[in-house]
């Protein structure tokens, strides 16, 4: 099952970082649910803690078993269960890729080419993502590591150039409306991190210290999201509530030396996040479909997944209410709890009862 | 004897006949009526003997003084049996070190082709081959494509044996091994595989040999023909196979455990595996002070990015994001562009094409005419086109700058030229967004290139902190000397 070379934990977590950052950067004001700015900043910090806690079952599972993934562990008890789990993962990642595709469509339509038809550009992004997914996890990981630095530099530039524009008056008193909005915000932010589910599937293919990498990843995501949220709230204040893509509005205000507009450059760098997220999701979808069916049509699965994602996400991106429906907080949170917490706990119980599973290499 | 690669010989070998006439007939049959085959018959010790060689491939003095005269003087009485005579001639009479005894006629023919002198004795079912080659050779001279400020002035030549000697002189180690192979069904070109036995990974060596055995060419006339057989299977503009014409550079690569292949008849040696970052290294980097070398490496890396992305970025910003320019610059560029008839994208592509044509003409033309071509292109295309309002001056500056930057990294000129056009198109159609996507896909492509299992982007990704001191920067020799780079250490990504 876990064929292919292992990738370094730095590369793996770089991919997860970029993938998660796309959700933050393309954050839509409509998904905020009226939560105040300062509450969102505190919620970002708390979401990192929630992420850490929710990933515990996965790490407990891999503490007992090495070299196999969650599906292999479940299959020891029941092959049917593992197939059901794989099907659930396929649905999850299909949802993730469609949601990412739709987000990208909305972002491209509003920010990149507001006056043109974005269909060709979106199609190109998907076509290139197919190529990247086809190349496999190793090239994706190597590319992710390099892009991590490029994206980090761009975001750092954004934050540094805007620090001077932060107005302390824009920060509302924390817990002004009680702790509920903070908790709500942190839950939603953590639940949007479906990358935790990728850990259950691909962690056995990661070499190096995966736990240390995970801690760095959670810390990095927490820091990046909190820093961006702080600048977002501090600079835009109430104005941020009326903009669809708040971070883009933030980029418009950034100035550096003689360059008075850096938004196009920032948006161009953010495109890389969409590309990595879609490529990575397509790769995982291919991996899961291969598990469920046959490995023979490996490349056809990538193309089929991309085509399905492209068609559905293009449709959704033209209908904002439909997008809001699929991004509904309760729906996302339930899905996250089931796939990132309940399923690994189930696998852990199965493993405790069924005994250790053989390494895939030793199986007939 | 070199082992043939690239061709299979299903027919059994023909043994040398005891009859001299039969053997001569066979060889004549192989060469037909070729004017340069020389067959000299004589009697040695009362037995019919023949010397066969190709005219122009052997040195007359070596032949006469080294082989024929000793045979005339020392063949002795006619009482000897042919086998005894042959053994005496080979063992005592002919004082030649580089000689071999052959049992098959195919071997004899191959030796003749390679410039050996063949001695056949009637009644003996073997022959002797003497290495008396002396054909016209280009002398050792300064490399033309890899010019160094402080490096050695010797470059490789066309004859592989001279090249091996140039390596041996610098790498005085018994672990330096040379294996001879042949490639090309008709050309029978000699390939000399060089490596350090104690440093080169066994798997790498086996891989190289296995790939060379799959060379299915009829004629091998240059390193570029062998290169594709050693390249990774990934379709990419970048190659994991390096080329050098400097013995000093090659020695350092061999010391890292890499494998090199000399192709007889070409002054270029192939190096595998070859990483992306190595394109930015030169011998001068190691001979100059580290701070300057590090600075130059950063300059070279910047040159690569300017060469690939600058024209595309200029077009992208001009077409899609003019607000990114500072106001003064925007005004100047807008004024310049307004005077030209072409859209900025078309103008960029057009000038790039013209530049490539001029460059190609400069390369192929005889030196004297080449200079004239340069002047004409600089004056006519450069100055006059701007004055005539056909091309905007800022665009010409961009193209000139990119042309200079690609000269900084000569072995990356090919991918840079193609990528430049690609990014101009990406920028012209999709702005900076297209360029970023193009860059991402380029990275994916480069990351998927793994020459002999090594990541082409190593040590950047997978990242190796220890290797940074001799990649993007160059540490001083006191620090660098402590860590010996070795292909074993970066073999595979795990």
What does this structure look like?
- The complex is a heterodimer of chains A (364) and B (494).
- Chain A is an all-alpha fold.
- In chain A, helix 7 packs parallel to helix 10.
- Chain A is 74% helix and 1% strand.
- Chain A has a two-stranded parallel sheet.
- Chain A has one domain: Amino acid/polyamine transporter I (Up-down Bundle), CATH 1.20.1740.
- The model of chain A has no long low-confidence stretch (mean pLDDT 87).
- Chain A has 15 helices and 2 strands.
- By secondary structure, chain B is of the alpha+beta class.
- Chain B has 16 helices and 11 strands.
- In chain B, the strands form 2 sheets. Chain B has a 6-stranded mixed β-sheet, sandwiched between helices.
- In chain B, a hairpin with a 2-residue loop joins strand 2 and strand 3.
- Chain B is elongated and about 105 Å long.
- The interface between A and B is large, with 40 and 32 residues.
Helix/strand/pairing class of chain B, anyone? Answer: alpha+beta
Please trace the helix and strand order of chain B, writing H or E for each element.
Answer: EHEEHHEHEEHEEHHEHEEHHHHHHHH
Report the total helices of chain A: 15
- Major sheet strand order of chain B: 1-7-8-10-11-9
Radius of gyration of chain A: 20 Å
* Total beta strands of chain A: 2
CATH architecture of chain A, by name, is Up-down Bundle
Look at the structure and give the mean pLDDT of chain B: 86
Enter the CATH topology name of chain A.
Amino acid/polyamine transporter I
Determine the structural class of chain A based on helices, strands and strand pairing.
Answer: mainly alpha
């Amino acid at each position: 099952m876990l064929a292919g070379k292992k990738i370094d934990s730095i590369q793996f977590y770089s991919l997860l970082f970029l993938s998660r950052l796309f959700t933050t950067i393309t954050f839509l004001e409509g998904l905020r649910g009226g939560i105040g700015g300062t509450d969102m900043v505190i919620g970002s910090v708390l979401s990192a803690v929630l992420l850490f806690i929710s990933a515990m079952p996965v790490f407990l599972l891999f503490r007992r078993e090495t070299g196999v993934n969650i599906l292999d562990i479940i299959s020891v008890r029941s092959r049917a269960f593992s197939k059901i789990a794989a099907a659930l993962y396929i649905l999850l990642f299909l949802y993730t890729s469609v949601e990412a595709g739709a987000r990208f469509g909305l972002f491209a339509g509003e920010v990149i080419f507001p006056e043109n038809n974005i269909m060709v550009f979106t199609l190109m992004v998907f076509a290139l993502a197919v190529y990247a997914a086809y190349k496999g996890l190793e090239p994706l990981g190597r590319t992710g590591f390099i892009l991590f630095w490029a994206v980090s530099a761009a975001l750092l530039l954004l934050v540094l150039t805007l620090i001077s524009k932060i107005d302390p008056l824009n920060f509302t008193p924390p817990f002004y409306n009680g702790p509920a909005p903070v908790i709500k915000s942190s839950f939603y932010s953590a639940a949007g991190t479906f990358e935790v589910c990728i850990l259950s599937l691909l962690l056995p293919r990661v070499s190096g210290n995966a736990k240390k990498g995970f801690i760095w990843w959670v810390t990095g995501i927490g820091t990046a999201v909190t820093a961006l949220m702080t600048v977002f709230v501090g600079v835009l204040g109430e104005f941020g509530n009326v903009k669809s893509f708040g971070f883009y509005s933030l980029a418009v205000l950034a100035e550096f030396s003689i360059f008075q507009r850096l938004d196009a450059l920032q948006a161009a760098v953010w495109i890389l996040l969409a590309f990595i997220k879609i490529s990575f999701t397509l790769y995982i979808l291919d991996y899961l479909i291969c598990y469920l069916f046959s490995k023979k049509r490996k490349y056809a699965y990538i193309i089929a997944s991309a085509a399905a994602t492209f068609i559905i996400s293009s449709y959704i991106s033209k209908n904002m209410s439909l997008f809001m429906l699929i991004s509904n907080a309760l729906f996302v949170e339930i899905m996250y709890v089931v796939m990132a917490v309940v399923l690994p706990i189930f696998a852990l119980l199965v493993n405790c009862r069924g005994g250790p599973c053989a390494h895939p290499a030793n199986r007939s | 004897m070199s082992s043939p690669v690239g061709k299979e010989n299903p027919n059994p070998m023909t043994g040398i006949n005891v009859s001299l006439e039969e053997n001569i007939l066979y060889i004549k049959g192989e060469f037909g009526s070729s004017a340069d085959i020389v067959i000299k018959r004589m009697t040695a010790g009362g037995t019919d003997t023949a010397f066969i060689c190709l005219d122009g491939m052997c040195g007359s003095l070596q032949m006469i003084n080294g082989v024929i005269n000793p045979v005339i003087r020392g063949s002795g009485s006619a009482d000897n049996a042919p086998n005894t005579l042959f053994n005496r001639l080979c063992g005592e009479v002919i004082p030649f070190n580089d000689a071999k005894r052959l049992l098959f006629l195919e071997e004899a023919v191959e030796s003749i082709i390679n410039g050996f002198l063949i001695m056949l004795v009637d009644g003996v079912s073997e022959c002797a081959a003497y290495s008396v080659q002396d054909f016209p050779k280009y002398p050792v001279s300064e490399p033309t494509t890899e010019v160094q400020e402080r490096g050695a002035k010797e470059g490789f030549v066309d004859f592989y044996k001279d090249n091996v000697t140039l390596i041996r002189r610098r790498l005085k180690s018994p672990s330096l091994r040379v294996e001879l192979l042949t490639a090309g069904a008709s050309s029978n070109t000699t390939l000399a595989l060089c490596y350090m036995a104690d440093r080169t990974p066994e798997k790498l060596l086996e891989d190289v040999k296995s790939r060379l055995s799959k060379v299915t060419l009829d004629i091998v006339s240059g390193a570029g023909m062998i290169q594709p057989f050693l390249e990774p299977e990934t379709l990419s503009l970048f190659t994991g196979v390096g080329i050098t014409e400097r013995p000093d550079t090659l020695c350092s690569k061999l010391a890292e455990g890499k494998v090199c292949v000399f192709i007889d008849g070409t002054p270029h040696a192939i190096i595998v595996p070859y990483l992306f970052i190595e394109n930015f290294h030169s011998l001068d980097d190691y001979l100059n002070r580290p701070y300057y070398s590090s600075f130059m490496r950063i300059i070279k890396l910047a040159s690569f990015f300017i060469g690939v992305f600058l024209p595309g970025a200029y077009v992208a910003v001009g077409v899609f994001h003019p607000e990114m320019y500072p106001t003064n610059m925007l005004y100047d560029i807008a004024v310049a562009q307004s005077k030209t008839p072409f859209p900025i994208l078309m103008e960029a592509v057009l000038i790039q094409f013209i530049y490539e044509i001029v460059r190609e003409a400069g390369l192929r033309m005889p030196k004297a005419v080449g200079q004239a071509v340069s002047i004409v292109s600089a004056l006519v295309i450069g100055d006059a086109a701007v004055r005539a309002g056909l091309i905007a001056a800022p665009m010409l500056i961009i193209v000139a700058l990119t042309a200079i930057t690609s000269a900084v990294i000569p072995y990356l000129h090919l991918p840079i030229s193609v990528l430049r056009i690609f990014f101009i198109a990406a920028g012209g159609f999709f702005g900076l967004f297209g360029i970023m996507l193009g860059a991402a896909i380029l990275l994916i492509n480069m990351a998927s290139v793994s020459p002999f299992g090594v990541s082409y982007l190593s040590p950047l990704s997978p990242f190796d902190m220890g290797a940074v001191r001799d990649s993007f920067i160059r540490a001083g020799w006191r620090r660098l000397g402590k860590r010996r780079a070795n292909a074993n250490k970066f073999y595979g990504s795990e």
